[in-house]
Design brief:
It contains eleven helices and 26 strands. It is an alpha+beta fold. Strands 6, 7, 8, 13, 14, 16, 17 and 22 form an eight-stranded mixed sheet that branches. It starts with about 25 loop residues before the first strand and ends in a 6-residue tail after the last strand.
């Protein structure tokens, strides 16, 4: 699909993440106005509350854009989502007759503060990247037992904490917790010494289901409003002590960062691609009727305190073994009720090569092979003062459909009395 040109000149820049083909959904504020819904277009934010108040867009009888979240829009369903996308394209495309009416409602991106784009109802994180699962399993169980027996049959996941999902730019406090050294008789309590990231995509569920209601993979795909970049911060040493037998708990509960823009499924449709060939046939309820993954280039950057930012890993969302639609269908298969605003983490996205690994645990191979940085220092895990950034975009013909950035700076742990 070629670039759809806009009268907003910056939206036609081949390097912008926000051309007219994208139209991602976010929440912004600017003095003296409160947080409200906006759509990114080039280096501008379209004030959706103002556009709605002016009568240029109307999705329902009640206003839905003068709120600091997109949940009310999501609950209107896919027909309304498509109606909104069509109308925005009509208003912002090159030579649009409404240009003079829309222009006053554009706010420069440089003048706004971005907020959480949704109220997260529930958060579930999956373990659905085969390269990551194989790497981690090899480190802890050996190559012959790297994948658990169920891994090729089921998207493994766990319920996380919606309360600590935060928007990009939020500083992250180093967590404290229990750890136990291999040669110690008793555990100890203190700051995490092996703080890590997990490069993930987050699927934003836009529709609810009733308790007891299963859904197909095709239905699940239609329920996903859009996607965000997601960093599932991880305390590896705390996790190693606590995770048996029920899996991650405090090692994951302290923070999850997401990018501020929800890129809609409709914007990503031209970049659909298939999941990998199956080593084991999936059960019928998990089989996909069409391509459900997306070709999205991803990168991880690290910036030491006072230093320069540099890329330490590059990979692609198409490396996932299970798609978000499969994860959602499996989640609901037991009758678990899903809510508009649910967030599903993909699991760490790693590729087959060393420089395609989506966590420091893999990049440093558990700390055995430190990563050399340009300033001469090394990292096995994250130091206080480090800023970690995730970026990603799908590459079109002369344009990008991007997510912006997902960043977080690490602050020292709080001393316990």
């Amino acid at each position: 699909m070629p670039l759809t040109k806009s009268w907003v000149a910056s939206a036609n820049d081949p390097d912008t993440h926000f051309p007219l083909n994208n139209l991602p959904c976010g929440v912004f504020s600017n003095d003296p106005h409160d947080a409200r819904c906006g759509v990114a277009i080039g280096d501008q934010v379209l004030d959706m509350a103002a556009v709605e108040a002016a009568g240029l867009i109307r999705l329902s009888e009640e206003p839905v854009f003068d709120l600091p979240f997109w949940n009310d829009v999501m609950e209107l369903g896919p027909d309304a989502w498509q109606k909104l996308r069509n109308r925005l394209t009509e208003l912002l495309k090159e030579y649009a007759p409404e240009q003079a009416m829309i222009a006053p409602h554009l706010v420069p991106m440089s003048q706004v503060r971005l907020h959480m784009p949704l109220v997260v109802s529930e958060y579930t994180d999956f373990y659905a990247g085969r390269h990551h699962a194989t790497n981690v399993g090899t480190m802890f169980r050996g190559a012959e037992n790297a994948l658990p027996p169920n891994w090729l049959h089921i998207p493994i996941g766990y319920n996380g904490r919606a309360s600590t999902v935060v928007v990009s730019g939020t500083e992250i406090r180093r967590p404290s917790g229990q750890t136990k050294a291999p040669d110690a008789d008793l555990p100890a309590f203190g700051p995490c010494q092996k703080l890590d990231i997990e490069l993930e995509m987050g699927a934003v569920v836009g529709m609810s289901t009733q308790m007891g209601q299963p859904i197909s993979v095709a239905e699940a795909d239609q329920m996903i409003f859009g996607y965000v970049l997601l960093n599932d911060w991880s305390a590896r040493d705390i996790q190693a002590w606590e995770y048996q037998p029920l899996g991650p708990f405090q090692a994951k509960a302290f923070a999850t960062s997401i990018s501020p823009w929800i890129v809609t499924t409709a914007a990503l449709d031209p970049f659909r691609t298939s999941t990998p060939e199956r080593e084991k046939d999936l059960l019928p309820y998990l089989q996909e009727p069409r391509p459900m993954l997306f070709d999205i280039d991803l990168a991880v950057l690290i910036e030491p305190d006072g230093g320069a930012s540099e890329v330490i890993a590059r990979t692609n969302y198409k490396e996932m073994y299970y798609s978000a639609a499969q994860q959602l269908a499996h989640h609901a298969s037991s009758g678990c009720a899903m809510n508009a605003g649910d967030l599903l983490g993909s699991g760490t996205i790693s590729g087959p090569e060393k420089d395609q690994r989506g966590s420091l645990l893999e990049l440093s191979w558990g700390g055995e092979k430190p990563i050399a940085l340009q300033d001469g220092t090394t990292r096995c895990f994250i130091d206080d003062g480090d800023t970690l950034t995730l970026t990603g975009h799908a590459q079109g013909d002369g344009y990008k459909v991007g997510f912006g950035a997902c960043t977080g700076k690490i602050l020292p742990a709080i001393d316990f009395p």
